[in-house]
Amino acid sequence: MTHEKAARPAPNLKFAHIGLVVADIDRMTRFYVDVLGFTVTDHGVFGEMRVAFMSRDPEEHHQIVLTTGRPPNLPANTINPDFGPVIQQISFKMGSLADLRDMRGRLEEGGATKLTAASHGNAWSVYAHDPEGNYIEFYVDTDWYADQPCYVPLDFSKTDEEITRETQAMCEASPGFKPVAQWRRDIAKVMAPPFRR
Ligand SMILES: [Fe+2]
User: What confidence tens digit (pLDDT) does each residue in 23-61 have?
Assistant: First the structure.
């Protein structure tokens, strides 16, 4: 594994939100509110552009911003058209496999397309396209680290216990295997310090 460090101490920062340029802001807002449970914290017009701010965290005024102005014909990703041409994924952390199963059903009912599911060893993921083809991911961390990238299809007809057992065995077979708590302690030593308010 490679750990690159900045030449001088890093500034105090934390990744906080992303903005998406959209074609149909009403349809996209409905999807993120109805299916993902976001709250519109503010919306309005800025010049010619409509803007919608959304969050699921009272600590953050917005986690996703939608603005109008998306060109009608964006080129596809040149390697895998399921990924976007620029934004590869927008990912949401969940708490349990039950949450992931619930979200999978909501996505199906809510008009998402291209549903897939994978085990990465260190996480279980459900993937889909939002109404404008952005690749969205819902994932649950596991207790084990495996070398990445690691991707095997996830079969939701199996029980949580079967999925957990198989994932742990897969991780333990990885050359870089370690409990995720250990991985976090190790990576913390080479990362810039966490955000301080
Ligand atoms: Fe991801």
Answer: 999 999 999 999 999 999 999 999 999 999 999 999 999
Distance 8 CA to ligand 1 centre (A): 29
Give residue 27 CA to ligand 1 midpoint distance, Å.
24
Mean of per-residue pLDDT scores for the chain? 95
pLDDT of 1 reads: 52
| E strands in the chain | 18-22, 39-46, 49-55, 64-68, 90-93, 113-119, 123-129, 135-141, 144-145, 152-153, 178-179
Evaluate if pTM is beyond 0.85: yes
Terminal alpha carbon distance of the chain: 31
Q: How far is the CA of 194 from the centre of ligand 1 (A)?
A: 21
